């Protein structure tokens, strides 16, 4: 047997975080979840914040559990949801609390930015899908909502970098994450200071971009003392969770589409260069940075967040249900033709998702969905129809014929969703692995530490290590 390599991956989703121990030996990876914790945003007044210090506390709890294993752990890395950030003052302190991207302070900012930089020009340079929560829009809103904090800030750290800073004392900005915020020149793959200045944002917020697979540094002595974990390097990977998920996707074909299916649905293709055409602008597709110089050309679609919140509301007001219960109820529903538009703003952060789904169906002349199954089917149909439309538009924009789709992430555990997706896109669907973001995180750690040579080698390891399933259109 060959040498065993141990790494830690922190993976933060929009509703939970976890720390995973990776064991790499004889060309295969095994994963063990050591610590899981909720990631619940907190409403204070009218605004929506991340519980940042609680999340960092949970990270240290995880590190203590890892230390208790008494294993020679080489490194750790962090990936999170996109666009959000913390602001640092001249003394190196976090000022204010990071605002959740679902906060509504950015409503109307797109129109204001459009007066400073025409939107077609903004897209031609950044290549990023227009969404209210893009980092550029959040910073513009911060100037008005939190002017004292904004003016005192001297540096911006995106969320994975903020947690990395707490662990190492090192500040950095990682390329794949920075690319999500509409702040980079998509072709040059660096900060677009022209756009930044024209929008009135401070240039000094931004540091030199770090590539995925870069060793950042060691744990601070006080972190080592508190957790008992020593000798561990902190590495910048594809720190946007979708960048890591795509890095681990064992594509069935070079022209396959990918779907990272979780709280959000990120559906697109991996390309060598950004697509900045009139068609991609009109269809509002995004060009985000990938690992190893790739571009993730994709569409952001509101995903299983809607189903997660339906379950939460049903448990609060009706009865306790699991996701398998929802699947069973959906299959048994009398009416299966209800449908929502998952990207409607009403589904972004409502107080009651169940009420919003029912209201949408009623307001669009579909009648009233009755029971858990009919409400859930409205969500399933909305998501999968959007997947079908997105795949067709990808083919139009890129001029490529997509033969199949690879799906990774927690959503693949829902076999009904996978089958309905194959039906909607009219193509074979290949699912797996579940832990896409974690595995992409680990692959880039192994590469940074010299254990593997290429991204493709990492994807081959994923193929050997984890089962994949196929769904054909019915």
From TrEMBL:
Residues 6-246 form the Carbohydrate kinase FGGY N-terminal domain. Residues 258-449 form the Carbohydrate kinase FGGY C-terminal domain. GO terms for molecular function: ATP binding; glycerol kinase activity; rhamnulokinase activity. One of its GO terms (cellular component) is cytosol. The keyword Plastid does not apply. Belongs to the FGGY kinase family. GO terms for biological process: glycerol metabolic process; rhamnose catabolic process. Keywords: ATP-binding, Disulfide bond, Kinase, Nucleotide-binding, Rhamnose metabolism, Transferase. SUPFAM superfamilies: Actin-like ATPase domain (SSF53067). Gene3D superfamilies: 3.30.420.40. This is Rhamnulokinase.
């Amino acid at each position: 047997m060959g040498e065993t390599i141990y790494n830690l991956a922190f993976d933060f989703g929009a509703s939970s975080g976890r720390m995973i121990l990776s064991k790499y030996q004889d060309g295969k990876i095994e994963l063990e979840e050591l610590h899981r914790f909720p990631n619940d945003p907190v409403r204070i007044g009218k605004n929506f914040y991340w519980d940042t210090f609680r999340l960092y506390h949970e990270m240290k709890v995880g590190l203590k559990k890892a230390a208790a294993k008494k294993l020679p752990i080489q490194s750790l890395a962090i990936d999170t949801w996109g666009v959000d950030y913390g602001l640092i003052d001249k003394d190196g302190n976090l000022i204010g609390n990071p605002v959740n991207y679902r906060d509504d302070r950015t409503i109307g900012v797109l129109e204001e930015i459009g007066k400073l930089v025409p939107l077609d020009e903004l897209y031609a340079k950044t290549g990023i899908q227009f969404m209210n929560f893009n980092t550029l829009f959040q910073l513009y809103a911060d100037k008005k909502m939190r002017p004292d904090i904004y003016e005192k800030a001297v540096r911006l750290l995106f969320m994975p970098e903020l947690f990395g800073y707490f662990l190492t004392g090192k500040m950095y900005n990682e390329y794949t994450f920075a690319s999500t915020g509409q702040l980079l020149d998509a072709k040059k793959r660096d900060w677009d200071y022209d756009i930044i200045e024209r929008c009135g944002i401070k240039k000094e917020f931004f540091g030199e971009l770090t590539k995925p697979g870069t060793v950042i540094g060691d744990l601070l002595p006080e972190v080592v003392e508190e957790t008992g974990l020593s000798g561990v390097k902190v590495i910048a990977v594809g720190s946007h969770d979708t960048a890591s998920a795509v890095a681990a996707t064992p594509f069935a074909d070079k022209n396959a589409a990918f779907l990272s299916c979780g709280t959000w649905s990120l559906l697109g293709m991996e390309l060598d260069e950004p697509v900045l055409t009139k068609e991609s602008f009109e269809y509002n597709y995004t060009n985000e940075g990938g690992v190893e110089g790739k571009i993730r050309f994709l569409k952001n679609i509101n995903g299983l967040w809607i189903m997660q919140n339906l379950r939460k509301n049903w448990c609060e007001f009706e009865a306790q249900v699991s996701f398998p219960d929802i699947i069973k109820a959906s299959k048994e529903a009398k009416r299966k033709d209800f449908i929502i538009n998952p990207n409607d703003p009403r589904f972004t952060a409502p107080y009651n998702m169940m009420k919003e789904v029912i209201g949408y169906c009623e307001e669009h002349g579909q009648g009233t969905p009755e029971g858990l199954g009919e409400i859930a089917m409205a969500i399933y149909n909305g998501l999968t129809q959007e997947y079908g439309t997105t795949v067709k538009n990808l083919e139009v924009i890129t001029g490529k014929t997509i033969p199949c789709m690879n799906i990774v992430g927690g959503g693949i555990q829902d076999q009904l969703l996978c089958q309905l997706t194959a039906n909607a896109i009219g193509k074979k669907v290949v699912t797996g692995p579940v832990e896409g973001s974690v595995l992409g995180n680990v692959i880039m750690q192994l590469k940074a530490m010299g254990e593997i040579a290429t991204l493709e080698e990492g994807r081959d390891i994923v193929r050997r290590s984890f089962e994949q399933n196929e769904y054909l259109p019915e």
